[in-house]
Specification:
The two termini are 22 Å apart. Helices cover 21% and strands 22% of the residues. The protein is built from four helices and 13 strands. The chain has one domain: Rossmann fold (3-Layer(aba) Sandwich). The radius of gyration is 16 Å and the shape is globular. A hairpin with a 4-residue loop joins β12 and β13. By secondary structure, the chain is an alpha/beta fold.
């Protein structure tokens, strides 16, 4: 297994984000595909996915660990798959069903979201079993460094007081995105697990 150099967190988190994004974008197409397959297999073998569940995923971009293989496997295993939808007025996330024929449109960040006709079709985080979460960096204490928008932390704030409440939160990243020295903030919602091409980490 390739030795991964763990990045030390800079006092300037934006600098850390830039370095980590550059790391994952520098991966070759072969490495990206290998990581996607290995991570998907690790998660699919876990006890969480042995029965059909409601699972939110995300569509990768900017060198993120790809989710296409995972999503297709979830469909084949009859899980219900959802994608996040940013609510403009609140900055919270709701979730819309994602199927092979779902129509998608980009939001203001250029990220594709399901087109939902009725508010009643939206699902809240509390109604999901698992959320597979994007991230820029992670540590081995279950802390996650996001892009800085706070969308997931706002949405999942209830888990700070009720950590055992659904959904379980699973980070999804390349091993090269590991860092040392992440300082927890009061609003940070910790991960239950994290999957890379190298390992499934439980917290």
């Amino acid at each position: 297994m390739t030795q991964v150099h763990v990045l030390e967190v800079s006092k300037n988190l934006n600098q850390t984000r830039r370095e980590l994004r550059a790391r994952r974008k520098a991966l070759s197409v072969f490495q990206q595909r290998h990581h996607e397959k290995a991570a998907s297999q690790a998660l699919l073998r876990s006890a969480w996915l042995q029965r059909p569940k409601r699972i939110a995923v995300f569509l990768d971009q900017d060198g993120e660990l790809a989710t296409k293989t995972l999503i297709q496997a979830l469909w084949q295993r009859h899980h219900q798959v959802y994608l996040p939808i940013i609510q403009p007025k609140t900055g919270h996330l709701s979730f819309g069903v994602y199927q092979p024929d779902t129509r998608l449109e980009p939001n203001r960040f250029g990220i594709s979201e399901p087109v939902v006709q009725r508010a009643s079709d939206l699902v809240k985080a509390q109604q999901l079993d698992l959320i597979i979460m994007p991230l820029v960096g992670f540590d081995l204490e279950g802390r996650r460094l996001g892009m800085g928008g706070g969308f997931y932390d706002k949405t999942l704030e209830f888990k700070l007081k009720q950590p055992k409440r659904k959904p379980r939160l699973i980070g999804w990243a390349h091993a090269c995105q590991q860092v040392n020295g992440l300082t927890p903030q009061p609003w940070d919602v910790p991960l239950n697990a994290l999957v890379t091409e190298a390992k499934l980490h439980l917290f």
